[in-house]
Amino acid sequence: MALAVVFIVLVVLPATIFGYQAWLLRPASAGVKIVEIIARAPDQGGFSPDRLSLKAGERVRLRISSPDVLHGFTIPGLGVDVDEIYPGKVVEVDLTPDKPGRYAFACTRWCGVDHWRMRGVIEVAGDSPVVVAPPEPPLFQQLGVDLDAMVDEAHIIPSVKPSSGAGAGLNRHYRQ
Amino acid sequence: MTRSTPSIIRGKQWLVGGATIALVLVALLMPLPVLGAEPQERHVNITARSFAFEPGTVRVNRGDTVIISLESTDVVHGLYVDGYGGSVVAEPGRPATFSFVADRPGAFRFRCSISCGSLHPFMIGKLVVEPNLIFGRSLAATVIVVIGAILTFWHR
Amino acid sequence: MRYAISEIPLIKRVLKSRWPQWSIVAVMLFFFVLAIIAGLFGTPAGNRNFGIVFVWIVWWALLILLLVPFAGRLWCGVCPIPAPGEWLQRRALVRPRPGGKLYTLGKKWPRAFRNIWLQNAGFLAVALFSAVILTTPIVTALLLLGFMLVAVGTSLVFERRTFCRYLCPVGGFIGLYSQVAPIELRVKDPAVCAGHKEKLCYTGSDDGYGCPWLVFPGSLTSNTYCGLCTECLKTCNQDNIAIFVRRPGADLLKTTGHRVDEAYKGLIMLACALLYSAVLIGPWGVLKETARAVGTPGWFVYAGVFLALNLAILPGLFWLAVRSGQSLGKPVANAKTTTGTLFGDYAAVLVPLGLTAWVAFSLSFVLVNFSYAWPALSDPMGWGWNLLGTAGMPWTPYVPGLVPVLQTPVLLIGLAVAVALALRTARQHGQSPRGALPVVAFCAVVTIGLLGLYLA
């Protein structure tokens, strides 16, 4: 009888702890995907994981926790905004992303010098191809203004004149 | 010279011991008129970083209106004052203030009220409201206890 | 003047039966294992982790504020750390094997270590690293696990509860402070033991094992080395052992058997109380950060100062007080006592002084942080559970304004008892009472130092 008690304490207790946690995290009957995110101070790694791959229309439960300091959590593209992830407390966010795309998430409570760099990406894949709407053309193009035609005599005229084409070339140069 | 019998010694001990305890209670509890400087408004800037407050010790006078401006330099910190119960939370870049009237003299610890890392429970500072009667009283009580105990237990 | 509380029929039944005590040990073991698992796998945020909250706040508060001052070494009787080792050693869980046989290599502990020096060293090591241990769950868990594994190993190699007697750092100081407690386990009539040939309380019998603390109950005059496991009470067939309620601190009145290792334990505890009060709950952030930054040059300086204070400075000051007392208190009779003997004998004052210092220090953080216990019960791992519905309870300091009001009387009581003991020691050695004055001054200065740290 005593042996049973000892067995309970030494074996059943750990098994129960991990078992209960696994049961809590099990996908519920209606197919909820559970994702754990740990929010650490940026110099300790920031969000972990920082890339999530989800499917459009999938019900997701995010469980966000922090082991060190106060963090916040926001996914602007999906309308999620958690004010406080208190160290040691787990915050659960339920969401169902329906539009495929890439959504950024970030920390919203100052947690260190690199707080601004504490962010991640959620990639939502779907049946329809990801349509990234091209950005609107700049106003001068919409108005049909020819920038190259606007010439003011400068005191010193460089050999390579500034123009939007030359600027685009600069971009290509820097992107390498 | 007659030698004291054990019962006389015992009686003397109870007398001296009792007197000591009475004096200690007087020292600790007797209300004293408080003479202090004129109460004024004090603005105190406290900077909080993990895991210390700067300045660590804040001294004010009794009756002062203390306006504490808490500024965090690294993460979110809070400040809670023992005995006065006021608290405030400050984010880096957004100082927060709260004020109270320091009507109780003594030394009060203030501590961080937002979990800010491992040493959070030991992130402590001290607010001293002068005149610090409690410390003075306990010093007096200590002296009384020492003398009283020596007299009570001194015999060859 | 003492009353044999264990003679009350209900209490006697409870003590003689093995199940009640064993059940308590099993419950303690449950919480111990939970603390280790929480520390190893739970949240690193200390105040939401069962391991940190229930070991360093709840258990510590119960130990130093209630158990030790009022029940001596009662914790040792229900401690889970030696339990698995002891079960393996006995190859029995509850009912003893015939003859009290033990299945261990049974080696005797080396003579050179049959003292509490190793426990002193163990305590110093834990105290030195406490800024990390108390705040990092995984370190606490590894420490607890380490204790248990050492206890198991020791049980299989050495006799009986060698771990508890010679290695456990906790046992080192609760043994010393248990002298203050108002209960004691002693023989009822020493003459019965003198006439009893077998001394089953030490050798063991079919009813029970010999004293696991390697103590002969018949010669117990002080609580220091009795772990209140009541094994002897179950084994003695002369019904000559009982637990008595007695005057608090009666053990401190003993005139012999004052040892240097115990004196040092008293000094170490006092030094640590002063250091903790300054470093952990003082307003000097620099000290705390240095204490935590293990391995940095600053930390080595801190460690050096820490150890110097514990092993050299405070003992040195105490020695000076004893020595100057020796010259001041010219012996009334022609007594020749060495400073060494006086050092050990005067060290009795460190027991009430140190215990009240630790009570005062503990009050300053226990009441403030006790409210972390409620969420820790509902969410021991910090994984977002809410077993009892209390996971959301906020941190609420309990009566923080009352703490200074409690600390002062506690320290003064310790001081008064210390002064009384000092004068008594002078008398015992035939010194004039003046000889106790330097030690009295030492006690007064320590008390004022602590009051200054808490109240100034």
Radius of gyration of chain A: 26 Å
Number of helices of chain B: 2
The count of domains of chain B is 2
N-to-C series of helices and strands of chain A? HEEEEEEEEEHH
Number of helical segments with 4 or more residues of chain A: 3
Number of strands of chain A: 9
Beta-strand portion of chain A reads 25-35%
Biggest sheet features of chain B: 5 strands, mixed
Q: What radius of gyration of chain B results from the CA coordinates?
A: 23 Å
Mean pLDDT of chain B: 88
- Shape category of chain A: elongated
Tell me the strand order in the biggest sheet of chain B: 3-9-8-5-6
Search tags:
heterotrimer; B: 156 residues; alpha+beta; Immunoglobulin-like; five-stranded mixed beta sheet; four-stranded mixed beta sheet; 29% helix; elongated; C: 456 residues; mainly alpha; 2 domains; three-stranded antiparallel beta sheet; 21 helices; 3 strands; 60% helix; 3% strand; globular
Account of the protein in words:
The complex is a heterotrimer of chains A (176), B (156) and C (456). Chain A has a domain at 28-131: Immunoglobulin-like, CATH 2.60.40.420. Helix content of chain A is 22%, strand content 29%. Chain A contains three helices and nine strands. The model of chain A has no long low-confidence stretch (mean pLDDT 82). In chain B, a hairpin with a 5-residue loop joins strand 5 (77-81) and strand 6. In chain B, the strands form two sheets. A five-stranded mixed β-sheet of chain B has the order 3-9-8-5-6. Chain B has a four-stranded mixed β-sheet with strand order 2-1-4-7, with no helix packed on it. Chain B has helices spanning 6-29, 133-153; strands at 41-49, 52-54, 57-61, 65-72, 77-81, 87-90, 96-101, 106-111, 124-130. Chain B has two domains: 5-33 and 135-153; 41-130, Cupredoxins -  blue copper proteins (Immunoglobulin-like, Sandwich), CATH 2.60.40.420. The two termini of chain B are 15 Å apart. Chain B is elongated. Chain C is mainly α. Chain C folds into two domains: 4-254, no CATH class; 264-455, no CATH class. Helices cover 60% and strands 3% of the residues of chain C. Chain C is built from 21 helices and three strands. Chain C has a three-stranded antiparallel β-sheet, with no helix packed on it. The model of chain C has no long low-confidence stretch (mean pLDDT 91). The chains are: A alpha/beta (176), B alpha+beta (156), C mainly alpha (456). Chains B and C meet through helix 1, strand 2, strand 8, strand 9 and helix 2 of B and helix 15, helix 18, helix 20 and helix 21 of C.
